[in-house]
Amino acid sequence: MFEIKNVSKQYNGEFALNNISFAMGKGLHFIVGASGSGKTTLLKIISGMEQDFDGEAYFCGKSIKELTSNEKSYYYNNIFGFIWQDFNLLEDLSVLDNVLVPRYLKNNQNQKNAETILKDLKIFDLAHQKVKYLSGGQKQRVAIARELMKNPRVIIADEPTSALDEKTAKTTMDILRAISKNRTVIVVTHDANLIDNKSNIFNLDKGELIASPQEIVTKTAGLKYDERHSLSIKNAIALTESNVKSKFGRFIISTLALMVAGVLCLTTVSGTIGGSSQGEFDKLIDTYGEGLKDISIVGSFMSAGGTGGNKEEQPNANVTQDIGGLYDKYVGDKRIDFTAFLQAFNDIEVTVSGKEYTVQSTGSTPSINKLVAGKMPTGKVNEVVVPEGFVKTLGISNEQAIGKEIDFSSKMYNWDSGEPVLKDASITATIVGVADTTVYYEYEGKMTEYTVDDSFFFSKAALDDMRKQAEIKKNTMNFLIRAKTPADMISIKDELNEAGIVPLGRFELVEDIVRLNKQTTEQSGSASVIIGIFSVVMVIAIFLITGFMRKREFAIYKVSGFNHAHLNLLNLSERITETLTASLLMLITSPLINIATRGLFSASILNSKMLLTGVLLIALVAVVAYMTTAIAILKTHTIIALKTGDR
User: Fold this and answer.
1) In the sheet where 14-24 sits, what is the strand order?
2) How confident is the model at residue 223 (pLDDT cuts 50, 70, 90)?
3) How buried is 256 (Cβ within 10 angstroms: 0-12 exposed, 13-18 middle, 19+ buried)?
4) Domain assignment present for 281
5) Three-state DSSP state, 410
6) Does 361 share its domain with 425?
7) What residue spans of 180-290 are helical by DSSP H?
8) Distance between CA 44 and CA 504 in Å, rounded?
9) Residue 168 contacts by C-beta under 8 Å, 6 or more apart in sequence?
């Protein structure tokens, strides 16, 4: 069965084995010798754990030195069984679960066979007991039962009785003798009391084989390698479930790490950290209304206190300026929501569906806080946006007002002579929008509001017609620009200043927000990078530590027949389970997470739109965790992890 030909192995220039040769068949065989004589080295070579040596070693005609990783995995699951002096069991699993480990690479668990083996070894009553609570003798029987589940042709035992008392050691050897009647059993030991006269003894001394049996060994037919040797997805999930139950604390830590890292990454990608300045601007909008983003462009104005008496809000000079062509320049600008002409009207009479309405003049410049229905008028046809207060006098809803035709007549000031002269003007126009015309201003530290109920905003075509009726020859009209963002507002203001135009608006308030946003963006960019790096480093650290703590567990799987592909499928199954659990946990705890992020960043990050993003981020972090664990699996050296000795 085994043929060893001129095998030598050196460590640091010293021979652990020196040109030894022998053959070994069925039965019980003892490899004996003093410490450092080469016993463990020979065992490693026979088992295929050590393939770097001089000479040749064969099992059933197959070169052990040339076994591939997959072939070795198949051998460990079907041909070779291993019994160790410190048992190498999965301590947190039950006796039955330990015995079933090799069967995860089969199509069925064959639990009945496992129960039969446990009964034969007289430990059936311990089947559901966790291994860590067993005595040394009981653990050794569990280890033997696990290997018998493979139905192996060879059992290799490395000092199987050294951790046992004399009585338990004798019992263990009786079991191995019984097994050796139809298998090859190789026992490495230094205890001569275990050996009887019928045993085959291979005696090593300082790497030299000084005694071996002289009997002729019958050659055994070669073995076939089964390519179907694999871990199914079903069994990977079953093994994951077993690991979660046995190491629930580890599972919870890993799951929480993925969820926390996912949430931290979500604060980065969602812009929550950098959204504080937007939050401050939103507060200003709540206070001053949407009109805070307005830029008024007028041909002339006199120095005066701004709204609320704050003179700093307006230039401290009388201004006359040419604004010709500016409307056409900005009407299609991507930075603006809309433009509107600031044409004031007096003595307004409006007829709708044959009924005449009088609109009280306020003497104020037309104002628009926000559109509450419809759209702003275009310049090509006679269209108008009417005040919400006017719609209420009609006794209809804002939506019902859209599309109605009105006959509008009023008086307009003609300043062409340098003095204001009221002129009649009228137009028939279609209502295309309804506006909230509330004005908000601060007076003596208190916010006050009023509505400008005579704020009608006509299209350019309609205004051109009415101005012609009022004999106004001046081409330019005052208008306002509603910027999309604070940054857009300041950008347009600076642009106008460079062109020599002085616009009107609450620029100081908005500039503070823009400056804050710039500072916050720079700071949040750094913070986002740091948080992102921290999240990834945290996950890598946790899973590296966990992975390297599991090296012994991975090694036990490997000597049970699991290869890297099998272990990485298990790794994938575990990470998917953790990802799903972390995602569910994030969903359940989202209200608490939002409370935390509102306190830290003044924003909620988990809503219906962001939850899916959060799940995807957890999945991405889980990929990092998978790769980290895969590295730990790759770096697991079976011999070192199982502490099988060095000679």
Assistant:
1) 14-24, 2-11, 54-59, 62-63
2) low
3) middle
4) no
5) strand
6) yes
7) 233-246, 248-269, 276-288
8) 88
9) 135, 136, 137, 140, 161
Q: Distances in Å between the alpha carbon of 534 and those of 270, 522, 537?
A: 17, 18, 5
Dihedral sign, Cα of residue 175, residue 176, residue 178, residue 182: positive
Token readout for 293 is 């983003």
Give the amino acid at 509: L
Q: What is the pLDDT of residues 29-87, one digit of tens each?
A: 999 998 889 998 999 999 999 999 999 999 998 999 999 988 999 999 999 999 998 89
Q: How many domains does the chain have?
A: 3
Residues 454, 365 share a domain: yes
Amino acid at 307: T
**Per-residue CA distances from 549 to 24, 191, 544, 557, 641 (Å):** 38, 33, 8, 14, 10
The DSSP-derived string for 1-69 is -EEEEEEEEEETTEEEEEEEEEEE-SEEEEEEESTTSSHHHHHHHHHTS----EEEEEETTEEGGG--H
Could you read off the pLDDT of 184-219 as tens digits, one per residue? 999 998 888 888 877 899 999 999 999 888 765 555
DSSP letter, residue 484: S
Name residue 633's amino acid.
Answer: I
- The last residue of a domain, from among 466, 487, 517: 517
Q: Apex CA 557: angle with CA 555 and CA 558, to 5°?
A: 60
End-to-end CA distance of the chain: 24
Assign 539 to helix, strand or coil.
Answer: helix
Q: In this structure, are 358 and 475 located in the same domain?
A: yes
Q: With H, G, I as helix, E, B as strand and everything else as coil, classify residue 356.
A: strand
Q: Quick check: 519 pLDDT over 70? A: no
- d(C-alpha 308, C-alpha 442), whole Å: 5
- Which of 464, 499, 517 terminates a domain? The answer is 517
CB within 8 Å of 311: residues ≥ 6 apart: 303, 304, 305
Nearest-10 Cα torsion for 18, 20, 26, 27 = -60
Structure confidence by residue, pLDDT tens digits, 570-593: 999 999 999 999 999 988 888 887
Segments forming the whole domain that contains residue 198:
2-230
- Assess whether pLDDT exceeds 70 at residue 243: yes
**Does residue 411 share a domain with residue 531?**
no
Choose among 69, 88, 48: nearest CA to 555: 88
Q: CB neighbours (10 Å) of residue 244?
A: 18
CB 314 within 8 A of CB 305: yes
* Cα–Cα–Cα angle for 249, 253, 254, rounded to 5 degrees: 115
pTM: 0.67
Length of the chain: 647
Q: What DSSP element (H or E) covers 230?
A: none
C-alpha span between 220 and 60 (Å, rounded) = 6
Residues 54 and 181 both lie in one domain: yes
How would you class 354 by CB atoms within 10 Å of its CB: exposed for 0-12, middle for 13-18, buried for 19 or more? exposed
Q: Do residues 511 and 583 share a domain? A: no
Triad 524, 527, 528: Cα angle to 5°: 85
